[in-house]
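Input/output pair, single chain:
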Amino acid sequence: MQKTASNSILNMKKYFCFLSILVLLVSCTADTTTFNNTAFQALKDNDFWRAEVYGVRKETNGVFIVEASLGYEQINFQLPELSEKTFILGVNDDTKAIYKNTSEEQESEFDTGAGRGNGEITITEYNKEENTISGTFRFTAFNIAADAVKQEMRITEGVFYKIPLETRNEISVN
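Output:
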């Protein structure tokens, strides 16, 4: 009789362990969190750089300007169109990348253009419904001042995500 009670307790312990493991496995589902935060960031000469302000605007001549800034520093792209493709820098003046620092102590400007600098800007997504673009970039730009101490600026591992396109047709009422 004692053996039967012992077996019952042992069986109950097995069921309890089995149920505990089953509950643990069921509750351990993969939690994935998706962030839809807009962003514009890169490595500027191997230092992390993340813009505080960014946007895309269309100029009257049809050229698109992607702008990003952090304090006195700016990174701008000039693109002939917004489409999902790779734009090569250093080939012509239709597609350019520019880095500027407008502080008085460090004022400088580096750019790419026809036969000047290199790199690429890739638009991986142009969402026409939300009016945003996402993509990657990297470039080497040269100082526009020939006598400057620092002649080259390298921007690598650049990413822009859901950067909004400004619509100028909206009327603002104050």
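Residues 2-27 form the longest helix (26 residues). The chain has one domain: 39-164.
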